[in-house]
Amino acid sequence: MIEQTQQCVADDTPQKVKRKKSYPGKKADSYDNGWVKMYTYKWNKPRGIRFVVSPASYFDNRAHISLCIGWLQIYINLPIYSTWDDCEYPEYGFYCYEGIALVICKGLKTKHIYMPWSLDWVRTSKLKIDGTWLHERRGDVQKWKRANPGRTTTDRWKEEEEAEGQLWKETHKYIYVTDNKKYKMI
Which end of the chain has fewer CB atoms surrounding its CB within 10 Å, N or C? Predict the structure, then answer.
C-alpha cells in the first residue's frame, strides 16, 4: 500500500494588509491623556479659528478651554468641576463659522457677525396660477403677528399651506438614463 503524503510549504510571499482609510472629515490623528485632547484633520478643510472657555462640556463636567487653529483642535480640561447638568452649556469666547461668520459667545447667547462675502437672503418668490407673485421676505412673520394680534403662528402656517395649493406647477415627461444604460420612462 502506497501512502500519499502532502507537504505544506510555507508561502513566503508578503500578504497585502488592508488599512482602514479615513474618510474626509474624520479625525486623522488624536491624542488624549485625560486632561488634554488634540485632534488634527488632514483631509478636510481647515476648521478655522476658535477660542472658547466653558464651565462644562457635553460629556464631561470639568471646565475646559477649546482652541482651534486651522487643522489642529485642542481641548484642555481644567481641574475645576461644575454642577452644570444640561446638554447646552454656557460658552465664552469666539469662533469662526464656515468662514462666513464670526460668532461671539457670551453664556448661552451668541452674536453672529456675518462677513461681507457671505450670502444674504432677500426674498423667496413663487408664481401663482393667476399670474401674480407670492413673496416671502425677512420680517414678514413679525408684521403678520402685529397685524393679527389674536391669532397664533399655527394660523399663519395654515394660510401658507392654502397659498401653496394656488401655486403654478408644470409637469414634463423625461427619460432617465442610468449608468448601466437602461432607460426608464417617468
Answer: N
Number of domains in the chain: 2
Range of the domain at 151: 121-186
CA 44/CA 95 separation, integer angstroms = 18
Q: Are residues 149 and 111 in contact, defined by beta-carbon separation less than 8 angstroms?
A: no
DSSP, collapsed to helix, strand or coil, labels residue 161 as helix
Identify the bridge partners of residue 73 per DSSP, sorted by sequence position: 39, 68
> What region, left, alpha or beta, does residue 29 occupy, with left being phi > 0 and alpha being psi -120 to 50 degrees?
beta
Picking from 114, 129, 152, the residue at the C-terminal end of a domain is 114
Q: Which of 114, 139, 158 is the last residue of a domain?
A: 114
Whether residues 101 and 136 share a domain: the answer is no
Distances (CA, A) of 87 to 19, 92, 177: 36, 16, 47
Distance, CA of 143 to CA of 89 (rounded, Å):
33
Per-residue pLDDT reduced to its tens digit, 89-106 = 899 999 988 778 899 999
How many Cα atoms are found within 13 Å in the side-chain-facing hemisphere of 84? 22
- Enter the C-alpha cell of residue 141: 412673520
State the DSSP code for 39: E
In order along the chain (186 residues), what is the average pLDDT of each group of 10 residues?
47 50 50 75 70 85 86 84 82 88 92 88 87 86 85 82 83 78 56
Instruction: With beta carbons less than 8 A apart as the criterion, state whether 89 and 57 touch.
Output: yes
